[in-house]
Amino acid sequence: MTAWKETVGGRRALTILRSRPFLTVAIVAGVWIAASFTSRGFGSYGHLRYLVELAAVIGLVAAGQTFVVIAGGIDLSVAAIVTVSAVSLPLLSWQADPTGLTAVLAVLALTTTIGLVNGLGVALLRVHPMIMTLAMATFLQGLLIIIAGGSAVTAENPLVRWLGNARPAGIPAGVLLWVAVSVIVLAAMHATSFGARLFAMGANPLAATLSGVPVASTTLAVYGISGFTSGLAGVLVLGMNGQGYVGIGDPYLLASIAAVVLGGTSILGGLGTYAGTIPGAILLVTITALITVVNASPGWRSILFGSLILGLLLLSGREQARR
Amino acid sequence: MSVVDPSRQAGALYWPVQLRRNVGVRGLFAVVMAFLVAYGFLFPGLLTASGFAKFTQSWFPLALVAMAQAILMLTGGISLAIGAMVSLGAVIAATTMTGPLGVAGGAAAVTLTGVGIGAATGFIVVKLRLPAIVVTLAGSFIIGGAALLILPRPGGAIPEWLSDLLAGNTPAAFVLLVLIVLLWKLYLATPLGLSLYAAGENPVGAYRSGVPVDGARIAAYAISGLLCTGAGLFVAAQTGSGDPVIGTAFTLNSIAAAVLGGIGFLGGQGTMRGALAGSLLLSLMISVMFFLGFTPVAQYVAQGLIIIGAVAIPQFRKVQQ
Predict the structure, then answer these.
(1) How far, in Å, CA of B285 to CA of A275, rounded?
(2) What are the beta bridge partners of residue B242?
C-alpha cells in the first residue's frame, strides 16, 4: 500500500493533498455537495455560477490583500478603496468616450495612487501598516461623503455595465476577469523575482534588506497592487449592482482578510499563496449563501458568520507552535 | 521583614525607574498639556466643576478602551472587537438594570460578560494559536450579533439615579479613572502583571525563564474585555439607554489612542500612562473639532490626517537621526 508514496509522482501528489489550498478546495467541495443535498436548488448550475460571480469581487480584493499579507503587512483600507472606485466612476463617465474605457482607467489610476500613498506611509514614514491603512480608510470615508453625499449614483458607463452583466460563452464577464487576474497574480507571485522578494520580505524584513531586496520599492508596489485590485473590484461591483453608494465596499474588508487566512496564508507574512485565497473566497460566499437560506434574524446571521469563520480558521489558519 | 535592604532598595529605585519610563512620552505629555491649556482658554467652562465633570465624562469611555487596547498590545496582541464589546456592555446594562436583576445584578452581568468573552477570546488566540487580528475580527461579528439579539433597536433604560451619578454634575468619572489607574498599578505588581511586559517583549525567552506567558496573555484579554464592557455600561448611562451599534467608532479610536500614546505593535513597548495621554489627546481633538463646528465628516478627514501625522513625525525624526 505504501509503495506508491515512494515514487516521485506519489510524493508530489501527497504534498498537494496535504497543502492548505487543497484543504480549502476540499472544504468547499464538501460544503457544496452537502448543501445541494439538503437545500433544493443550491447545486444548480445557475446558482453555483452566481456564487462564483459574487466570489469574484472578494477574490479581486483579496488578490491585493494576499500580496500585502505575504509581504508582512495588512491593508485595512480595501473596503474604502472599493467604495471610492464604485462611487467616483459614475461621476467621471465622460460622454466623449463611447466605450467608457478612459473613465475606468482613470478610476483605476486613482485607486492605485491611493494604494501607493499607503505604501509611501508604510515604507518611507515607517507608520505601522495597520495604522496607515486604517487612517487612510477613515480619511477616505470622510472625503467620500463630502464628494458624493449620502445618495446613490447610477453608472451609465457601457464597459462597466458589460462587465457586470455580460456572459460571453455562458460565463459571467466578472468571472473571466477574475480568472485573468488570478493567472497574472499567480505568475507574478511564484514565477518572478518580484514574487521571491515578496516572500523574503515577509519572512524576515531585516534579512531581506541585508540581502539586497529593495524593501521600500517592493512595499510601495504591493500596496499599489492592492489599491489597483480593490479599484477593479469596485468597478465590478458597480457593474453588478448598477449603482454605487457610500458603504458599498464595507463587507469586503473582513471578507478579503478571511479569504486570505482561510486559504492558508499566514497573517504574519512570508508564507502562503493566492491559489489558496481563490477557494477561500468561494468558501466565504458559500457560507454567506447558506446563512441566507437559514433565514435568521440579522443578529443570528452575524453570529453564525463569525462562528463559521472562526471554526474554519481552526481547520486551516493555525500558526505554528512557538516552542 | 527581617531583610530590610532589598525592599528599601526597591523603594529607592521606584521613582528613578518611573522617571525613566516617562522619557518616551515626555513630548506627548507636553503636547497634551499645551492642548489642555489652549482648550481651557478657548472654553473657560473647563475650570468650573460642571465643565470639568462633562469633560472627563466625554474622555472616560475613550480612556477605558485605550487601556483595553493597550494592555493587549503590550502582550503582542490586538483586538478589532473593542467596539462590539462596548456595544454589548451597553445593551446588557440597558436591558438588565431596570429589570428584576437591578443595578447590582446588571453590573455583575456586564462584568461577567466582559471577563468571560475576553477570557474566551484569549483562550482561542493563545491556546489554539490563531492570529489575534483574525479571531477578534470574526469575534466582532459574533459579539455584535449578540448585541443585536439582546436589543435589536436602540432602547432599554438605565435607572435615572445611576445616570445622574455617573454622567451628571459629579466628578464620578474622574474618580473612577483614578481608581482604575491605581488598580492597574496594583495589577502590575502581581505575578501575572509582572509577566505582562515579558510575555509581549520576548515570549520565547520569557517562557524559558519560567514566566507564565500564556496565563499573562489570557488574563490580559479578560481584563481588556472587562474594560470594554465597563465602557459600554458608562456609555449607556450617558445616553440613558442602550444601542446595539453605539460602540463601533471605539475600535479605531482605541488603536489610534494607544499608538498616539507610544504603544508598539510588537508587544512590550510603551506605557499605560502613554496610552491614557494618547486617549486624552484624541478626546481633546474630537471636542475641539466639535466646538469649532466641524461636521462629523470633516472630523473623519482631520482625524485620519492627524493620526498619520502624529505617528509618522516621531518615526521620521528617528530615521533622520
Answers:
(1) 45
(2) B155
For B92-145, the DSSP string reads: HHHHHTTSTTHHHHHHHHHHHHHHHHHHHHHHHHHHS---HHHHHHHHHHHHHH
The x, y and z cell numbers of residue B294, run together, are: 466641524
Q: B217-246 b/e with 16+ CB inside 10 Å = b?
A: bbbbbbbbbbbbbbbbbbbbbbbebbbbbb
Q: Per the CB < 8 Å rule, is A132 touching B298?
A: no
Are residues A273 and A261 in contact, defined by beta-carbon separation less than 8 angstroms? no
Contact A261 B147 (CB under 8 A): no
From CA A6, how far away is CA A243, in angstroms rounded?
57
**Unique residue bearing C-alpha cell 453625499:** A149
Distance (Å) of CA A64 to CA A51, A225, B144, B319? 21, 6, 28, 28
- Looking at residue A171, its amino acid is I
* Dist. CA B180–CA B60, nearest whole Å: 11
Q: What is the spatial distance between Cα A246 and Cα B50, in angstroms, rounded to a whole number?
A: 39
Ranges of each domain in chain A: 43-316
CATH 1.10.3470 describes domain A43-316: yes
B260: closest chain A residue by CA: A131
The upper half-sphere exposure of residue B77, i.e. CA atoms within 13 Å in the direction of its Cβ, equals 37
Cell of A249: 465596499
Fold category of B44-320 in CATH? ABC transporter involved in vitamin B12 uptake, BtuC (1.10.3470)
Q: Report residue B19 CA to chain centroid gap.
A: 23
Could you read off the pLDDT of B134-190 as tens digits, one per residue?
Answer: 889 889 989 999 999 988 888 888 888 888 888 777 888 888 999 999 999 899 888
Record: contact A310-B140, CB cut-off 8 A:
no
Q: Does B305 touch chain A (CB under 8 A)?
A: yes
Q: How far apart are CA B256 and CA B258, in angstroms?
A: 6
Give pLDDT tens digits for B89-139.
999 988 888 878 888 888 899 999 999 999 999 999 988 888 888 889 889
Hey, what's the cell of B192? Answer: 501575572
Geometric angle at alpha carbon A47, from A44 and A51, rounded to 5°: 135
Tens digit of pLDDT for each residue in A272-309? Answer: 888 888 988 998 888 888 887 777 788 888 888 888 88
CA angle B76, B77, B80 (to 5 degrees): 150
Q: Which residues of A are less than 8 Å from B250 in CB distance? A: none
Please tell me if residue A296 touches chain B, with a CB cutoff of 8 Å. no
